[in-house]
Amino acid sequence: MTLVERFLKYVSFDTQANEDSGVTPSTPGQMVFAKYLKEELEALGLEEITLDENGYLFATLPANTDKPLPVIGFIAHMDTSPDMSGKDVSPRIVENYDGKDILLCAEQNIVLSPSQFPELLDHKGEDLIVTNGKTLLGADDKAGIAEIVSAMVYLKEHPEIKHGKIRIGFNPDEEIGLGAHKFDVEKFGCDWAYTMDGGEVGELEFENFNAAAAKIVFKGRNVHPGYAKNKMINSIRVANRFITMLPTHEAPEHTEGYEGFYHLIGINGEVEQTTVSYIIRDHNRTRFEARKKEMEHLVRKINDEYGLGTATLELRDQYYNMREQIEPVMHIIDIAFAAMKAAGVEPRVKAIRGGTDGAQLSFKGLPCPNIFAGGLNFHGRYEFVPVQSMEKAMNVIVKIAALVADR
Ligand SMILES: [Zn+2]
């Protein structure tokens, strides 16, 4: 099977994750896919193949040299986004893309157009795998799986490329934030790993937000409005006062790059009680802590104004910037950089404005930056992946394996 054949086979499995199921994997289709992959890895002659009851599939490509080398891993996720159906995916390859509109679905007039998605023009002359406009494609992250499996096959077929022990891991439920959750880092047994789960060619990510969630409950005092003078406290107004005390420009719609924010995500109120929810994000740990302190400070201020117990704050850390875990092992970034260059890919380092499984894995003791898998427009009907991007990603994996042995 070629890389493309493998990818087309993988997207035929419906592995859409479900946030509400409460089990792992969150949908049975992911286990069906995992079992298929397990058989494929067995047929390819990989070793130490295990599939646990939660749908985590691990395998080994043994070292082909006696030189003592670190064990490295490559990871991708089997599920697709809950945002759009991944059932009956019917992909099509647009060969030698001419830079014009691509009609995905004639009956509903769904068009993948460079006027909306200018990135398409970066892939003129390449072969694009697109959807039929009715489902997502699933390049996120089946492109990653196809690239990893194909790279292992390539290494097996090219024994002249010396490499250490390589572990591969395919996990469920990344799209619902639970991919790292039941990932047995000890059993995986790697010194470090890379998730193949980024987008455009060259992407290399090892920084993400520090993240916390805040919930503030404001208590009011309800009195008949006719008799309310100097008695009523309207919790909605108190909440509003609190909201306006936070810097209004430090919000997602006004920030980019390394700028952090307070994001007001919910408000639910009556005179008697109002609940306000925020998420707090910052790449910088010191500024992140300062943002939390600022929330505490403003809650104290409200209580000074309206009386103790008017506002209560619940703060909960959600995840941290993996950079903290990567910095002591910066050579793993250098290797990824060098591998990209060797594969003819210009590295593009980008700070993730969100979290990743890799961040959670990094804090579980497995440093785990993220590398491009080549797909674009994830989570919807306009998703596509250039074949040439997948080939580059596969090449990067092969080069990383070779470079680790060569240092
Ligand atoms: Zn993904």
TrEMBL record:
One cellular component term from this protein's GO annotations in UniProt: cytosol
Active site: D79, E174 (proton acceptor)
GO molecular function terms noted in the UniProt entry: metallopeptidase activity; tripeptide aminopeptidase activity; zinc ion binding
Keywords, sorted A to Z: Aminopeptidase, Cytoplasm, Hydrolase, Metal-binding, Metalloprotease, Protease, Zinc
EC assignment: 3.4.11.4
Cofactors that this protein relies on: Zn(2+)
Binding-site positions, Zn(2+) 1: H77, D140, D197
Keyword Nucleotidyltransferase belongs to the record: no
Co-factor: note: Binds 2 Zn(2+) ions per subunit.
One Pfam match: M20_dimer
Residues noted as binding Zn(2+) 2 in the record, renumbered to the chain: D140, E175, H379
Gene Ontology terms: biological process: peptide catabolic process; proteolysis
Compartment(s) of residence: Cytoplasm
EC class name: hydrolase
Chain's role: Cleaves the N-terminal amino acid of tripeptides.
Record-linked PANTHER family: PEPTIDASE T
Family the entry assigns: Belongs to the peptidase M20B family.
Protein name (database record): Peptidase T
Organism listed in the record: Prevotella heparinolytica
Lineage: Bacteria, Pseudomonadati, Bacteroidota, Bacteroidia, Bacteroidales
